[in-house]
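Submission sheet (multi-component)
Chains listed below:
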Amino acid sequence: MPNAAAALYAAEVLPQPYLLFLGDITEPGYAKTAFGLRDWAAERCVGEFACEGASVSTGLPFMDPAQARQAGARAMVIGVANPGGRIPSSWLPRLLEALQAGLDLVGGMHARLSGIESLRAVAAAHGRRLIDVREPPPVLPIATGRKRSGRRLLTVGTDCALGKKYTALALARAFQARGIDARFRASGQTGILIAGEGIPMDAVVADFAAGAAELLSPDADPAHWDLIEGQGSLAHPAYAGVSLALLHGSQPDVIVVCHEHGRERVLGHPHYALPSLEETIELALRVGARTNPAIRCAGISLNTGKLEEAEAQQAIGETAARLGLPVADPIRGGQAFERLVDACLA
Amino acid sequence: MPNAAAALYAAEVLPQPYLLFLGDITEPGYAKTAFGLRDWAAERCVGEFACEGASVSTGLPFMDPAQARQAGARAMVIGVANPGGRIPSSWLPRLLEALQAGLDLVGGMHARLSGIESLRAVAAAHGRRLIDVREPPPVLPIATGRKRSGRRLLTVGTDCALGKKYTALALARAFQARGIDARFRASGQTGILIAGEGIPMDAVVADFAAGAAELLSPDADPAHWDLIEGQGSLAHPAYAGVSLALLHGSQPDVIVVCHEHGRERVLGHPHYALPSLEETIELALRVGARTNPAIRCAGISLNTGKLEEAEAQQAIGETAARLGLPVADPIRGGQAFERLVDACLA
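Outcome: structure written.
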């Protein structure tokens, strides 16, 4: 495996506030990025914009790029992802309009904004930037394994797409509400758009993945907490390597294990059963102890979004009783969530 | 994490036989690639070539590129790696001489041959190719986790650089000597040069690493064995993610755990103790069972290169007694190695 000169990661903060672009979609499931920004960075979103025919809305005021610029926006964010991650030509007039109005363009899709000639030309002519957040830093170090100062929490999942980002964001808010110096650390494209910075772990060359995770939560004040967005799952047949590199490089003091109530099969891999919470905790603590022997599991973040309130409370209570750990749905909040926060800080 | 269309990996075989280029080095430790080719692909190496002042030799006949071309060579391989992985300008006249003599150039260093303007120009003028084996296939699939036909063995290490490649190569030879349809599958640059094909796992984007490993050992005849070169270690603070992705994607039926007798600290990470063989076996079987529940450990490949024969035999015997598994040094061979092969095939 190669050596690489250690490099500083210039944590360039994205231009904000944002105008959210919803393309021409009619399926809310494709707008996860826009909804994530509305939910977690509403104070940095001035409004939304879309092509004619779009039917999905974040509920933010509709405005064109010129109006958004007047309202203080500095960038328009592609807030939707088509299947395939491509940028359809029908969006181009709207994207060009944003550049001409003085907004930078920010995208997190697989397709690179900078790969489209007409965008490049207009951006250059207007002194605007095309920013692809799924582009990792050009130079990354090989991980050292050196223990860093400050405190770290990583959200660990039983699967993809069940609440690791929302949990880290909710915990960061809760820590801050208690007066703690805490910061969300984004490891995926939507998280990066919310935080305004971060490293897209899934786009890093494998040999540098743990090194990228080390860069993501650098040395800090001993009382500072980094709340790190997890990726994938140690039991995922495609992404476990990313999850392990992120766990090793994050060297968390605390993990919170995230699960969706009732999910039994790996998303998109129905021939794989989901690991139990018990197995997930045990394996994460075992391999995580390699870079931080003091690692511990504070509790469970249980996504109960598909349940009614009474069912959700029952699922939370049963899981807590079974594991003997605090269990909460951060979206529901309440006393259960405060107890989970207590356990993280204990 | 992204989806990607499944892609076929066009396993382009490298132009062979080779002329081995030794640069201007005087330190044998930098010539691992040349020595690996001499040891494992001698029948495809017509000779060696070097700059004036070089003092390292593989023992193959010295010849210039024109003589090598006459002797049947089709490519000159950069068989050495300087610290930093760069191509010094003092090598360029020799590299150009090879292109002019009708040889392609093949490199496995971090620096890309195709990144050097004068090489590009001369290669184009002479219809020759510049081949960088550390360049992964341009399109890789996301792993599916689907069980493939045929049988697989993966070498798993307690650390880097202690014999995983040599062990897989030795086992492939031993399998073939017993009349078994067996093939070495290379996952690193030297292995790729030896095999003439393969995928450089350390250069793959993290999200696609398990998918690359799936591509590396495709569906095969039920009696066929792929002997897959391992990478890194599940306990390595920098590379464990690569190791886990390779383990998951390889879905081995059998692992052979590779260790260097007496190594107690992780190479280059002296604050990390090496895991025990017992821990290494147990963790690899546990996580490997995720994609192949029938995974088993056939035994240990013990690198005793620093020991005298009597000491080596004692170390092998003691390790075998302690673990209750076959233990052998493939380089020493003998009955112990045949017993290890028996156990792999049991």
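Remark: The first strand of chain A starts at residue 18 and ends at 21.
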